């Protein structure tokens, strides 16, 4: 062969090789940097190998879509070599950390950059302004810090700009002669910057008539100065949220020109001047001007002339005089005029809105009320002269506060019967058991405030389903549940997405479904306003085994020493990447902050519980703020927190002086983290840092069984529900005794330690007193007696020998509580004794009509006698005569079958889902509950053996 031709061939083949392998090497780097990559990421060629989550055009990677698969690691800078990449969606992988590569601007073809719900840090690189194709930029819900790069102003194709929920500081950049700014973004419809630490004035230059923006969300920052009047020139606006900043000055009068604005939030600022005149905002649905310092004024007429107003929040705004009757005649759902100087007689008139749910007039000067008998929803006149009159104060409902609880919505079955499912599976709306992909939808500004109305959810369901199915995704059905309004006034909804054809999604399915939500392909009707979705990690891939990351397997054998050399380089490269990954791994070691000097016995052996840093928890609880404080006890405080994934948690924070030694704390979390059962509250993680000891639990929304029995939560427990709760709790305790390893004796079973979730499933809580049993313990442990009076096993009390039968005794007392809804010790009477004395087995209902809870006395009490027999066998004097927990479970199952209930079915039929609304509701974690150690409940500490 001609020598020149040979050289040509050689050069040619090198070129082919290097082009084809360019993207391969980058993806190998990703694979070795990240944990939990899809299992089919094997081999050397991601494109021909059809790697999950990777889309190619020819040999070039054009899309990476990998949301919600628990990816862990950093974004390697090699990724910027994917020069054909158009879509990068790594959303909802909170294990992704580190900063973005400075040269990210090299990804010149990128149109969608979606990193929402990860844990990226550092500043947003300036080079992001070079991504001129970018349409969709979603960096929200991370930990980015530093300034918003002005270069973003170069992204003239940008449609969606979401930087919310980070730690961004500095001012909002606008253009100057030397640099671009966000005022250039005339095609961007969404400016979402909420929940950062942006400061300085809102530049008046930011807003101009050329903008076409729909949603301006700047809430919860540190913006100061006055609202620029230029805002009134942006006629496209539909949602404006400037609430919870430090804005001052008067509201510019030309805001009134914004006839398209539906949601306007200016609350929690220091605005002054005349009360705004919003007569021209004719589309206004939701307006919140609360907590500002406007000049005192009468209720303006626009309150009653705006045709589509649903929500008026005007708390503490200096309003005075009489409330006009005409106010209530529009579409109103909520009128909150708390803390003003309104006076005279309240008259709702006869033509008030039939949607009216809440009229809150606390802390005013109202001295009369023309009672409108048709209005039966919430009215609050507490702290008005009318409620100071004796007689009125005691007798009128409107003189007491009944806090609204969240509605108990969850999607019902599509005319089929829900089937019992094995452990983690859930019955879909089409009654098939499957592992859904779940996550949280956050609607950041809805046009309605009444979230009790079920049509809000039922009308969303078919649209969501359609969005998936019309994108050819394998979705069978979807289910919405657990609506709440969070502290930011976002509507928060749980979304479960069920697979079709099989019981679980594969990686392709999760990638596609995740993208429909992360890229906003699904568009809800306007009334829902802007939303984001944060997915939970999907844990149910078939046979999910770890992908190997040992070097590169090269499937193609090519001759020539040049190629061998290239392979060696590639191998070295992969090795380096692996080393890098290992280094990153070490940095992410969850126990890195474990203090070995404290002789705490090394790294704790944990299953599924995460180590949180103090900083993280501080962020999730808004700096342990008062509003998030949901309970306290001798141990310390309990806070509610929201993880970036949207998961609500209860954080038990030991106060100084109550902390345990490192070893004890470690023993406790090791024990707690081993406990995984659907009827047991699970530990999500812990924090052991900066002298702090905190335990993080899943948050159980419906409070304690005791609160429901006493009527506090407004949830009515009929006989059937009580049987289900008894069964769930019994299964939880049985699990601790028989299946936990090592077995656990709870030592403090009581109705205050049984929590009810959104579907009223019972969950056993608080192992603060728990006692693991070692092999050597042979059935009993001798300990100092601990527990709660009324539930305490008398045998244990006398002998100090703790056995599982002590829990059975306490559980028997709980069964008696389920029958009577009374405290075990009340007015000097002991429930066990009273039962034994009153009972006559020859009579109907054993002659117990006088002491059973009136709430169930109207029910047909099928199985009642067997239930009583079981309860009394549990509270026998001698432990040896009591049944075991597994016997108890079996007998409750028998009773349920008698009563025609399927002991394995899910609880909470949707037909019953709307009770318990707007009745008094105390939070589960207040006073004597899960984490409280007051009263008869002795101080808690796990005793090290
Ligand atoms: C709006 O756009 C027009 C035409 O492109 C331009 O001349 C004008 O300067 C722009 N106005 C502002 C305030 O940017
Ligand atoms: C409010 O503005 C409207 C025009 O938008 C005007 O007709 C009305 O008089 C104003 N009301 C007050 C009290 O200034
Ligand atoms: C109500 O308040 C207004 C304004 O403060 C005052 O002028 C009026 O006299 C008060 N009316 C009654 C009945 O107290
Ligand atoms: C993933 O699931 C979809 C639909 O359920 C199916 O069509 C596809 O073949 C699956 N992919 C793999 C790699 O199994
Ligand atoms: C992402 O969503 C937008 C609409 O928000 C849509 O136009 C676009 O086609 C989507 N991108 C892809 C790749 O599906």
From TrEMBL:
- Coiled-coil ranges per UniProt: none
Q: Give the signal sequence positions.
A: 1-21
Bias class Polar residues marks the residues at: 587-602
Q: Which GO terms describe its cellular component?
A: membrane
Instruction: Identify which top EC class this enzyme belongs to.
Output: transferase
Kindly list the residue ranges recorded as spanning the membrane: 552-575
What Pfam families does the entry give? Answer: LRR_14 (PF23598), LRRNT_2 (PF08263), PK_Tyr_Ser-Thr (PF07714)
Instruction: List, in alphabetical order, the Gene Ontology terms for molecular function in this entry.
Output: ATP binding; protein serine/threonine kinase activity
Name the EC number(s): 2.7.11.1
Which PROSITE patterns does the record match to this protein?
PROTEIN_KINASE_ATP, PROTEIN_KINASE_DOM, PROTEIN_KINASE_ST
> Keyword set for this entry?
ATP-binding, Glycoprotein, Kinase, Leucine-rich repeat, Membrane, Nucleotide-binding, Receptor, Repeat, Serine/threonine-protein kinase, Signal, Transferase, Transmembrane, Transmembrane helix
What region holds the Protein kinase domain? 624-896
Presence of keyword Signal: yes
Entry annotated with the keyword NADP: no
Q: Which PANTHER family match?
A: LEUCINE-RICH REPEAT RECEPTOR PROTEIN KINASE HPCA1, RECEPTOR-LIKE PROTEIN 55
Q: What is this protein called?
A: non-specific serine/threonine protein kinase
């Amino acid at each position: 062969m001609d020598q020149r031709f040979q050289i040509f061939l050689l050069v040619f083949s090198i070129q082919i090789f290097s082009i084809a392998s360019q993207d391969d090497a980058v993806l190998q780097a990703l694979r070795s940097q990240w944990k939990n990559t899809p299992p089919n990421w094997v081999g050397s060629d991601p494109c021909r190998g059809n790697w999950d989550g990777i889309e190619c055009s020819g040999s070039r990677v054009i899309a990476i879509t990998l949301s919600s698969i628990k990816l862990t690691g950093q974004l390697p800078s090699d990724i910027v070599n994917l020069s054909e990449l158009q879509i990068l969606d790594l959303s909802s992988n909170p294990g992704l950390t580190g900063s973005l590569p400075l040269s990210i601007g090299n990804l010149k073809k990128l149109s969608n950059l979606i990193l929402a719900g990860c844990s990226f840090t550092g500043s947003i690189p300036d080079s992001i302004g070079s991504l001129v194709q970018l349409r969709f930029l979603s960096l929200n819900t991370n930990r980015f810090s530093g300034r918003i790069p002005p270069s973003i102003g170069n992204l003239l194709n940008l449609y969606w700009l979401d930087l919310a929920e980070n730690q961004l500081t500095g001012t909002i950049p606008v253009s100057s002669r030397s640099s671009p700014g966000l005022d250039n973004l005339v095609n961007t419809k969404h400016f979402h910057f909420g929940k950062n630490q942006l400061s300085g004035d809102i530049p008046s230059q930011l807003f101009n008539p050329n903008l076409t923006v729909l949603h301006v969300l700047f809430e919860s920052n540190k913006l100061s100065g006055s609202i620029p009047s230029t805002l009134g020139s942006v006629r496209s606006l539909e949602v404006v949220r400037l609430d919870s900043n430090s804005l001052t000055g008067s509201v510019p009068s030309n805001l009134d020109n914004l006839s398209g604005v539906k949601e306007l939030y200016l609350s929690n600022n220091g605005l002054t001047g005349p009360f705004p005149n919003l007569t021209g905002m004719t589309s206004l649905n939701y307006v919140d001007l609360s907590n500002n310092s406007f000049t005192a004024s009468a209720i303006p007429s626009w309150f009653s002339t705006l045709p589509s107003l649903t929500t008026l929040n005007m708390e503490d705004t200096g309003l005075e005089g009489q409330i006009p009757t005409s106010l209530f005649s529009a579409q109103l759902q909520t009128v909150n005029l708390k803390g003003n100087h309104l006076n005279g007689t309240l008259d709702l008139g006869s033509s008030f809105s039939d949607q009216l749910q809440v009229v809150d007039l606390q802390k005013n000067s109202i001295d009369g009320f023309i009672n409108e008998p048709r209005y039966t929803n919430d009215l609050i006149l507490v702290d008005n002269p009318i409620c100071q009159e004796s007689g009125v104060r005691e007798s009128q409902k409107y003189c007491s506060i009944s806090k609204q609880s969240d509605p108990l919505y969850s999607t019902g079955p599509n005319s089929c019967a829900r089937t019992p499912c094995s452990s983690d599976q859930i019955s879909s709306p089409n009654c098939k058991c499957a592992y859904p992909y779940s996550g949280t939808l956050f609607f950041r500004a809805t046009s309605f405030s009444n979230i009790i109305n079920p049509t809000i959810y039922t009308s969303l369901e078919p649209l969501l389903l359609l969005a998936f199915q019309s994108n050819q995704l394998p979705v069978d059905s979807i289910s919405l549940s657990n609506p709440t309004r969070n502290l930011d006034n976002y509507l928060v909804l749980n979304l479960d997405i069920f697979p079709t054809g099989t019981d679980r999604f594969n990686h392709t399915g999760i990638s596609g479904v995740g993208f429909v939500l992360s890229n906003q392909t699904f568009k809800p009707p306007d009334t829902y306003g802007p939303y984001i979705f944060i997915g939970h990690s999907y844990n149910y891939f078939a046979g999910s085994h770890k992908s190997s990351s040992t070097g590169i397997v090269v499937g193609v054998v090519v001759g020539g020493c040049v190629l061998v050399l290239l392979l060696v380089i590639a191998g070295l490269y992969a090795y380096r990447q692996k080393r890098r990954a290992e280094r990153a791994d070490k940095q992410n070691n969850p126990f890195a902050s474990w203090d070995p000097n404290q002789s705490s016995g090394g790294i704790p052996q944990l299953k599924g519980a995460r180590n949180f840093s103090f900083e993280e928890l501080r962020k999730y609880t808004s700096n342990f703020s008062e509003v998030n404080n949901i309970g306290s006890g001798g141990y310390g405080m309990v806070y509610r927190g929201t993880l970036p994934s949207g998961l609500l948690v209860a954080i038990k924070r030991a106060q100084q002086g109550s902390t345990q030694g490192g070893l004890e704390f470690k023993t406790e979390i090791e024990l707690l983290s081993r406990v995984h059962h659907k009827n047991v509250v699970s530990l999500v993680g812990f924090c052991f840092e900066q002298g702090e000891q905190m335990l993080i639990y899943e948050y159980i929304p419906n409070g304690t069984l005791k609160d429901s029995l006493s009527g506090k939560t407004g949830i009515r427990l009929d006989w059937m529900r009580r049987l289900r709760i008894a069964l769930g709790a019994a299964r939880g305790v049985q699990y601790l005794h028989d299946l936990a390893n090592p077995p656990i004796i709870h030592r403090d079973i009581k109705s205050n330690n049984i929590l009810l979730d959104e579907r009223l499933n019972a969950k056993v809580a608080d192992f603060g007193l728990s006692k693991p049993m070692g092999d050597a313990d042979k059935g009993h442990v001798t300990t100092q007696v601990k527990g709660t009076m009324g539930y305490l096993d008398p045998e244990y009390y006398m002998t100090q020998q703790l056995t599982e039968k002590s829990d059975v005794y306490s559980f028997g007392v709980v069964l008696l509580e389920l029958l009577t809804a009374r405290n075990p010790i009340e007015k000097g009477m002991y429930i066990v004794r009273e039962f034994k004395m009153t009972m006559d087995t020859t009579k109907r209902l054993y002659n117990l009509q006088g002491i059973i809870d009136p709430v169930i006395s109207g029910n047909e009490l099928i199985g009642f006698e067997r239930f009583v027999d079981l309860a009394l066998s549990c509270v026998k004097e001698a432990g040896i005569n009591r049944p075991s927990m597994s016997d108890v479970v079996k007998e409750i199952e028998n009773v349920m079958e008698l009563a025609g209930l399927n002991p394995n079915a899910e609880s909470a039929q949707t037909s019953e889902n709307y009770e318990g609304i707007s009745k008094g509701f105390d939070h589960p974690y207040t006073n004597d509950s899960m984490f409280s150690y007051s009263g008869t409940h002795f101080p808690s500490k796990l005793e090290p053996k």
